[in-house]
Design a protein that fits this description.
Layout: E1 3-8, H1 21-31, E2 35-40, H2 48-51, E3 61-64, E4 67-70, H3 72-82, H4 91-121, H5 128-150, H6 162-171, H7 184-195, H8 197-214
Parallel strand pairs: 1-2
Antiparallel strand pairs: 1-3, 3-4
Length: 215
């Protein structure tokens, strides 16, 4: 049965591969699973048909036969558990890879994403500079801990895993921000993730859709 995921009809990231369908595309490319994409307008995302699949009116969703999933982390975990290549087989290393998935989404992503939202939505507010400085302080603290854990390693815990996939997608939001270069091993870690052929295929597919829908 063909897998179908949803994505923005007009992505706010303008082809930078930051929308959360990117991490699902990447996971499917890593395991060699073909998939279709259904594009949604912002209006369609709030209509009953989509809300039946994603109660919060967001993207991506994942449909396969009678299975419907939402939340990108849950979708990537499902893909990783069903296909070889994104989770180790051994119990302890597998559990640690899943822990890194949660760390990417629960520890690293919130302040990084909030920084983006503050810069977009709160720039004219009197508290803007204070709020931005507080978020950047938190980001630096968490990047420092992550940098220390990665050290000279290629990936977070042995071979590349779904934990690395999610972590790289989170850290990519810091491209062009002066914070990430303060941690050269993390900057290089992101580049290694982006150099993977599966990432390149996913990025090209998303960029092609953006280019087509922008015409």
């Amino acid at each position: 049965m063909t897998i179908t995921i949803t994505a923005f009809e007009h992505s706010p990231d303008r082809g930078r591969g930051l929308a959360r369908d990117m991490r699902v595309r990447w996971a499917l490319e890593e395991v060699g699973q073909p998939y279709d994409v259904r594009l949604l307008s912002f209006k369609a995302m709030k209509e009953p048909a989509h809300l039946a699949l994603q109660p919060f009116g967001q993207i991506p969703t994942y449909e396969e036969a009678d299975l419907v999933l939402f939340e990108s982390g849950a979708i990537v975990l499902h893909i990783a558990e069903r296909n070889a290549g994104l989770l180790p087989q051994a119990g302890a290393t597998r559990a640690r890879a899943i822990a890194w998935m949660f760390a990417a989404l629960n520890t690293m992503e919130p302040p990084i994403f909030d920084r983006d939202m503050v810069r977009i939505l709160e720039r004219s507010e009197p508290w803007y500079q204070t709020r931005l400085a507080a978020l950047e302080k938190t980001i630096r603290m968490r990047l420092s801990s992550l940098s220390n854990r990665l050290g000279d390693g290629e990936w977070l815990d042995g071979p590349f895993s779904a934990g690395d996939l999610l972590m790289v997608t989170v850290l990519r939001r810091l491209h062009g921000v002066a914070i990430l270069p303060e941690f050269p091993n993390l900057a290089n870690y992101v580049l290694r993730g982006e150099a993977r052929p599966a990432f390149q295929r996913a990025f090209a597919a998303q960029a092609a859709l953006v280019a087509r829908t922008s015409c």
